[in-house]
Amino acid sequence: MGTAGTPQRRAILTGGLAATAALLTACSSKTDTTSTGKAAGAAGTPAPASPAAAARPDSPWAAFARLMDGNKRWVDGKLQHPDRDPKRREFVAEAQDPYGVILSCIDSRVPPELVFDTGLGDLFVMRTGGQVVGPVVVGSVEYGPMTSGTPLIVVLGHQRCGAIKAAYEALRDGKTLPGNLQAISDALRPAYRETVKKKHADPVDAMVRIHIDQTAADLRSNKDLAPLVKKGDLAVVSAYYSLDTGRVEVLTGAPSA
Ligand SMILES: [Zn+2]
């Protein structure tokens, strides 16, 4: 790309986050999930919306139920692959309105869109080694809930997490991990400290679960998200993914209907 970029690109750059946030906010209106569709409405030409898009979950419970239904299909091998066709691409091209935020590990065996059987425009997804967070990641997690009312955050850890195993062993042995991997180990120190307070048959698995719960608790109580949680507009769920079965086990924070 040249230095000036295209007009659209310049508009995006100069408009920045505020413009995008305004766009997202505009499209998150509760009455905007009707059959005409957001992108179609903006263009003035109604286009058929997929059934999934028309029924976009707007409450923490509805979003949670949608995700868990998708996970059940994944476990049972009955995938529907919703929201993955060209119609859906057109529908969300102008604006997006995901119903969930997933913070998960980079592990190649835990792709959120597959394990929850979702499609285009359904989820904001953040993935880091051991799903550790820092200011940039937390800001990215907060983006949907704070700008467009995304009603659900799921912190998803998983069985046999290599990042957490490596950090556990390094912290236990007082070793430094190579390069920037040490930053992941540093971020996992609070979970390690909590883990070694008790004896566990499988301390790495215990540390995975402790880390998921700590991360979800931190998000739930942070100054930006806590007011949304208190109002019932947002749920922050901690969950554990089994590589063996494909099942997502909810640990804490499941919203009620
Ligand atoms: Zn992992």
Automatic annotation (TrEMBL):
Region feature (Disordered): 33-56
InterPro entries assigned to the protein according to its UniProt record, in alphabetical order: Carbonic_anhydrase, Carbonic_anhydrase_sf
Family statement drawn from the similarity comment of this UniProt entry: Belongs to the beta-class carbonic anhydrase family.
Functional description taken from the UniProt entry: Catalyzes the reversible hydration of carbon dioxide to form bicarbonate.
Protein known as: Carbonic anhydrase
Species of provenance: Streptomyces lomondensis
